[in-house]
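To whoever is on call:

I kicked off a structure prediction for a single chain this morning and the downstream step that reads the tokens threw a length-mismatch warning. I double-checked the sequence; it's 324 residues and nothing unusual in it as far as I can see. Pasting both halves so you can look.
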Amino acid sequence: MIYLLFGKQPLMIKKRLQNLLKTNQPIIDDFSVINFDYEKDDLEDILLAIETLPFLYDKKSIVITNANFLKTKLNEKNAPLLTAIQKDNPAVDVYFIYENDDISMTNEIVTYIKEHGKISELSNLKAEDWPIYVKKFFKDKGITIEDKAVTELVKRVEGNLYRFVNEANKLMLCCTGNNITLLDVTTMVKKPLEDDVFQLVNALYRKDNALALLIYRDLKLMGHGLVDNLVSLLGTQFRFIAEVSHLYERGFDYARIAGELKCHDYRVKMALKNKGNISNDELANILRNLFLLDFQTKSGLIDRDYAIELFIINFPKYPNLFNA
């Protein structure tokens, strides 16, 4: 049997693969389950493994990771793979693993698996499914978690299942009385830097430059490595507000804007609320100055921390501070 497992949740793919192997492979060891990385291993070795009968086993499984060729039409280099799996040897199972969701349904191997094998898409959990998943995860391990703690934890792991499992295991080790509280989550699970940048931008739009400066200095004190990319992240936030404003002016409602920009409705609502405090011309000028700031700090013309603090202190009016 030929299988294709794909999607943006590597942990879910790994678990599905393990379950399939337990079901389909009588004996699991390094000889009955042979792993290949398509990006690193020779195609000839992969073909030989697929076409060779198992030795001293009734069945064997071939696992091919990084099957990136499935996102485009099959080319001459990859064509022998199609020929190999079309032999459909009942003693050999082949698993193609692709950790993304942009496979091409016109790829000949994908088409063949669709008709003669099994395709499983391990997609991201939907926003409404995350709280259910989190509660069940902890319940299965005899742990309770407050509703507010669930909401905050979901927000902080940003839809990343690997990160959720790591943070959940840490919380279970340190929680008191088999119950996880909001305080446990806020204390032990680090907020995404982008969330702090979002709060910094909100403070700037409220003209609370002192709070914005405090947030920035807190980020530096926490030793966030991503502070190095703060100017780019600020630019991303202001571009987001510009995109939201543009779509809103075209008549899009909150839900449609959120769908277009693949974000939460609340973020759209906050962006529009903040946008009311600044004109389109001022927003364009902010983006221009962030570009100049980025160029000048990377060129060594001005100290990065000093430049960012000047940007925050003088926001939104800072003519000629960063002009080339």
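Update from on-call: the warning came from a stale cache, not from the record. Cleared it. Sanity check on the structure: Strands lie at 2-6, 33-37, 60-65, 92-98, 118-121, 144-145, 179-180.
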